[in-house]
Amino acid sequence: MAPAMSNPLLSDRVARSKKVPSSHVRAVGDRPDLANVDHESGAGIPLIDLKQLEGPGRRRVVEAIGSACENDGFFMVMNHGIPEAVVEGMLSVAREFFHLPESERLKCYSDDPKKAVRLSTSFNVRTEKVSNWRDFLRLHCYPLESFVDQWPSNPPAFRQVVGTYSTEARALALRLLEAISESLGLERGHMVKAMGRHAQHMAVNYYPPCPQPELTYGLPGHKDPNAITLLLQDGVSGLQVQRDGRWVAVNPVPNALVINIGDQLQALSNDRYKSVNHRVIVNSASERISVPTFYCPSPDTVVAPADALVDDAHPRAYRPFTYQEYYEEFWKMGLQSASCLDRFRRIE
Ligand code: OGA
Ligand code: NI
Known about the structure:
CATH topology: Jelly Rolls
Oligomer: single chain
Strand order of the largest sheet: 2-3-11-8-13-6-5-4
CATH class: Mainly Beta
Number of domains: 1
Bound molecules: N-oxalylglycine, nickel (II) ion
CATH superfamily: B-lactam Antibiotic, Isopenicillin N Synthase, Chain
Largest sheet: 8 strands, mixed
């Protein structure tokens, strides 16, 4: 239930103020240092064309995906198969949702991370000391029929539009997981099988314009706890990835999606593929919307690498754990650069 006294959402409370409130101001050594960011001319990460993924060029595409997973942990894909109209529909219904009157949006508010559908702010308001410049709607998406009836029914097209997008995003996640399995020399279906019954969550992130972007984060540096993330962003920059200790801006490329390896694929690949630190910066000129799809093992899945990826030179990096155990640890830790995965590392 929404608290009766005050609106907890950022977008309504402070977005129009001239100063960032103290609740959102980071300590001096913990600020984004915006002058020290690499703005490369391209996307800043590899851009991979998926057009040939199901054709004679498959092997080359698989190799490109494999080397991006190994060296960058992040890449962009074009010709990914999700129709442009579906992508545009998703972004516009997301914008419409966050532009609804607050009384309407607040019907979805909850600060309980266990809820399958909820609107909240920052990251985990129950545990964090400084808040982030973000409101977000989080939805469980798979199996769709188990959750869609709990999703917001306003805007009226929300369930249909978001349901279509999340079904398309799942199909793309499965194709990528097949390519990733092959790139590791495993059977095409390996990763899909290793993830049990599967789960899919979506965040609809809303970053309002911020009067002092140098004092706060949309999201501070973190690694994603799931297996693979498919990020749809509107035309506004904000995502940055860490490479060799430097922050690199990932500028949006029209019709491309950003893909990144999460902690579970790092574990399932026995550390061959990298879950990389990334963060979100806000800006004073415009709001920004992003829609990450987090594809994950089901909670009861025991996460462990294929035998073929373990040998004397590559001993098991992690103790076996269930995804549920991992996810609870992740939420407890909060967003910080210390890796949650390191807590599951085997000590020889
Ligand atoms: C996330 C994330 C990036 C973005 O939600 O985990 O990294 O651009 N989002 O919003
Ligand atoms: Ni992330």
